[in-house]
Amino acid sequence: MKLAVFSTLVAGAAAFTGPVAFETKSSTALNMAKAFPSKLQYVPCVAVDKLPKPGLATSGVAGGLAICIAVDPSGSVFALGDKCPPVNQPLSFGRVSEGTIEDPVLGTKFSLKTGEVVGPWCPSGIGKLLGGLFEPSGVPVYPVKKAGANIEVQVDVNAKANFESQYWSGVLDAQGKADGKYY
């Protein structure tokens, strides 16, 4: 109980402190040992006729990765990771303005070109409380192109396999046996 009260007091104090300068770290690369070599490929993500209107974004999946497809007011299309730091809500619900997309919950703006934080980190409402608990970090960005009736995004098609290779496998593994077969 004392810990809960102490945590609440610390979080409350953090919400009312002045702006703190943080160095933004990019989360555009997975920092882990790779079981499979990187293999960059353009893969279909969303159909061209499913693109949102300028100023909006939508979500898609490319190579097993959640992707946010954003269309800026001038009609340019961008692809970013669809998980907003620090709590991983969908970036595709955000508002797109000239050069940025805004996290719909915490208010952080991310560059459409670099994925880096633009402006204050977690400036709105609950973001002021949560933002002080985490260091600012960007979102990954991906090359995007139109190919026929699809918008394709260049991703490492082995990224999901590399991430999942870090999972423990054994008797209690819900994914199946270590050799990839099911029980």
Automatic annotation (TrEMBL):
Keyword annotations for this protein, in alphabetical order, are:
2Fe-2S, Iron, Iron-sulfur, Metal-binding, Nitrate assimilation, Oxidoreductase, Signal
Keyword set includes Oxidoreductase: yes
Spans traversing the lipid bilayer? none
The record's annotation in Gene3D superfamilies points to: Rieske [2Fe-2S] iron-sulphur domain
Every copy of the Rieske domain together lies at: 42-153
The source's domain of life comes to Eukaryota
Whether Signal counts among this entry's keywords is yes
A Pfam family assignment: Rieske_2
Signal peptide range equals 1-15
Cite the InterPro entries for this sequence.
Rieske-like_NirD, Rieske_2Fe-2S, Rieske_2Fe-2S_sf
Q: Which GO terms describe its molecular function?
A: 2 iron, 2 sulfur cluster binding; metal ion binding; nitrite reductase [NAD(P)H] activity
Which GO terms of type biological process are on file? Answer: nitrate assimilation
For this entry, the protein name equals Rieske domain-containing protein
- Organism of origin is Trieres chinensis
